[in-house]
Amino acid sequence: MTWNLEEQLLASGAVQLRPHEPFQWSSGLKAPIYCDHRSLLGVPEIRTHIGEGLAQLVTPYHPSMIAGTSTAGIPWGMLVAQQLSLPFVYVRPEPKAHGLGRQVEGQSCQGQSVVLIEDLISTGSSSLRCVEALRKEGARVQSVIAIFNYGLPSSQIAFDQHQVDLKTLGNFENLLLYASSTFTPEAIASLKAWQQNPHEWSAQHG
Questions:
Q1: Burial, 89: exposed, middle or buried (Cβ in 10 Å; 0-12, 13-18, 19+)?
Q2: CATH assignment of 5-204?
Q3: CA-CA distances (angstroms) from residue 125 to 118, 122, 206?
Q4: Tens digit of each residue's pLDDT (9 = 90 or more) over 9-38
Q5: Which 3 state secondary structure label does DSSP give 107?
Q6: Which residues pair with 31 in a beta bridge?
Q7: Any alpha helices (H) in the chain, and if so which ranges?
């Protein structure tokens, strides 16, 4: 039987869709989708598939180091680094406010060819802040690899502007293919409308 990420995300409850009862994100926006990939860390079979899938996406870049975003990308980045026998560092959203004030934690990434592991791509802003932090430390960041991508139009523009490849195991379009059997055409249309303009959708559902 073929293993499908999007199908597993829905079946496990790691991704939930509520087009008629939106979630509120930390940004304040209303959204019809919520992802909690951390719950998958407790499911060995799914965790293994994701770790192996991420490693396969990383391998063509031939990195000398793996980085993970704090905090959600740390466990997945560690899985990849372990599988590929590579050094690992993690990157905070902002420099630490005390101690050594580091933003990149671990050994030096000066001169290293780095792939950054993330769990989820929405706007891409948090991932790209981590890319810039790594670059300030002297790393060459080739790509961001993530589990899932909402596919918001603004995110791809942002990655292109920063000259960073973006690869993901799963995406919103494929998720809708599996969701179409349990949601009405109207609900699917609402989900697609959110993807195209999340701010407008949020304003209409506030």
A1: buried
A2: 3.40.50.2020
A3: 12, 8, 23
A4: 999 999 999 999 999 998 899 999 999 999
A5: coil
A6: 23
A7: 5-12, 44-58, 73-84, 125-136, 153-161, 172-179, 185-196, 198-204
